[in-house]
């Protein structure tokens, strides 16, 4: 592709010395307009005019690239750009055939975006193996978005064997070209010690590079390191600033994390009402943890009017989204009849769901249920087994309950709420 572009520019220079200069300039103009509207900044030769997909003015780009394709119907690059414009406009039906043609010709834009579409099932049937094949071709051609996406495929084992070393390799290749998402992803690999040695200093350095470009994931990830003081002195005030930057971009993790700091007055002045608003914004985007956090506020009446029914609704959404702490709390509301009638079946259902993931508070609460025969036949040994599993994880209340049942003592409740 780079050779073709060098050759094409060479022909243009030669043509400038020929009598037909006006015709040649007119022929080139549609291609240039299409490039200016739809090229990626990571394409060789288009670094200064390229843009991210979400920054494309789709109407302008589609019109320009349709004109360019009419002038050069066999140009894989123009097909890739036109497909990218359709993709940005949400028109997968028109984008896919163009991506197919452009990818078959080795166009890096098509290889990257269509590879992602196949991997995630975005507008096409999922085919992770083919997606990985296309991403590999784009990555090996040096295209940063394909390199970052191939890193993700290796990271999560999508379409090829999971390999953290290869994931880190491809994240690094894209990060070194200045791709902020890849910089953040590489930082996470250092933070977690996946494919590279665990190194919090290196993680923070890569996050800082992403932050310098205004990347929301970098802002959130660096903020979390600073909030927790991981590998460096804690700086909750800067963490709050970073979360706010991400939240202002609509990032649900930034919204949730800033909400947590505001709720608890960490690094900022406490403002539970503002926290509730941020949790709501993140919950509306489907973030289970934010749904759980907002449910807690509704249950306790902090920052919002107390509303057990709303808490139940949010806990259910969060639990269905995989937040097991929400399943624990939902089970407790049914067990205690708060916002609903006492319903042992529902209480056991949600508590068991969390216990199946080895959540220690859920295990403890199941022990309480079986010890007291709440909706089940009382069974001391089953209660002891649940208390034991929770105690083995260091959960003190379960250890106390276990000691009470296995030694001389009087019964006490084993319930607790997780926050």
From TrEMBL:
Checking Pfam families in the record gives: Sel1, TPR_19
InterPro entries on file: Sel1-like (IPR006597), Sel1_AlgK (IPR050767), TPR-like_helical_dom_sf (IPR011990)
In the UniProt record, does the keyword Transcription occur? no
Top-rank taxon of the source lineage equals Bacteria
Q: Where is the signal peptide?
A: 1-25
The record's annotation in SMART domains points to:
SEL1
Asked if the record carries the keyword Signal, the reply is yes
| Entry keywords, A to Z | Signal
Record's PANTHER family?
Answer: ERAD-ASSOCIATED E3 UBIQUITIN-PROTEIN LIGASE COMPONENT HRD3, SEL-1-LIKE PROTEIN
This one is known as SEL1-like repeat protein
């Amino acid at each position: 592709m780079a050779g073709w572009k060098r050759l094409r520019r060479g022909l243009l220079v030669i043509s400038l010395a020929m009598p037909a200069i006006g015709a040649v300039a007119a022929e080139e103009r549609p291609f240039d307009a299409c490039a200016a509207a739809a090229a990626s900044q990571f394409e060789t030769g288009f670094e200064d005019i390229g843009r991210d997909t979400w920054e494309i003015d789709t109407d302008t780009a589609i019109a320009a690239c349709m004109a360019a394709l009419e002038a050069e119907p066999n140009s894989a690059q123009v097909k890739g750009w036109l497909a990218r414009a359709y993709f940005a406009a949400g028109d997968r039906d028109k984008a896919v055939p163009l991506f197919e043609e452009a990818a078959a010709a080795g166009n890096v834009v098509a290889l990257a975006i269509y590879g992602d579409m196949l991997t995630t099932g975005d507008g096409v049937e999922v085919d992770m193996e083919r997606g990985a094949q296309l991403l590999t071709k784009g990555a090996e051609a040096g295209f940063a978005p394909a390199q970052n996406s191939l890193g993700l495929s290796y990271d999560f084992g999508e379409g090829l064997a999971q390999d953290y070393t290869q994931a880190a390799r491809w994240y690094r290749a894209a990060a070194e070209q200045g791709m902020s998402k890849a910089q953040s992803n590489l930082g996470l690999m250092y933070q977690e010690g996946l494919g590279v040695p665990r190194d919090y200093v290196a993680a923070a350095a890569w996050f800082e590079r992403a932050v310098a470009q205004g990347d929301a994931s970098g802002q959130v990830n660096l903020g979390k390191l600073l909030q927790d003081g991981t590998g460096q002195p804690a700086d909750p005030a800067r963490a709050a600033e970073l979360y706010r930057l991400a939240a202002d971009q609509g990032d649900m993790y930034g919204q949730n994390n800033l909400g947590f700091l505001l709720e608890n007055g960490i690094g900022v002045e406490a403002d539970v009402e503002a926290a509730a608003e941020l949790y709501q914004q993140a919950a509306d985007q489907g973030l289970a943890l934010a749904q759980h956090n907002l449910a807690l506020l509704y249950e306790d009446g902090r920052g919002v009017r107390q509303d057990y029914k709303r808490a139940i609704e949010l806990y259910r959404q969060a639990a269905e989204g995989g937040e097991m702490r929400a399943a624990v709390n939902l089970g407790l509301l049914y067990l205690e009849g708060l916002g609903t009638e006492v319903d042992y079946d529902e209480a056991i259902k949600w508590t068991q769901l969390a216990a199946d993931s080895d959540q220690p508070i859920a295990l403890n609460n199941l022990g309480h249920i079986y010890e007291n025969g709440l909706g089940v036949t009382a069974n001391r040994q089953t209660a002891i087994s649940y208390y034991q599993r929770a105690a083995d994880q260091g959960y003190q209340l379960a250890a106390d309950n276990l000691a009470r049942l296995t030694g001389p003592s009087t019964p006490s409740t084993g319930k607790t709420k997780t926050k």
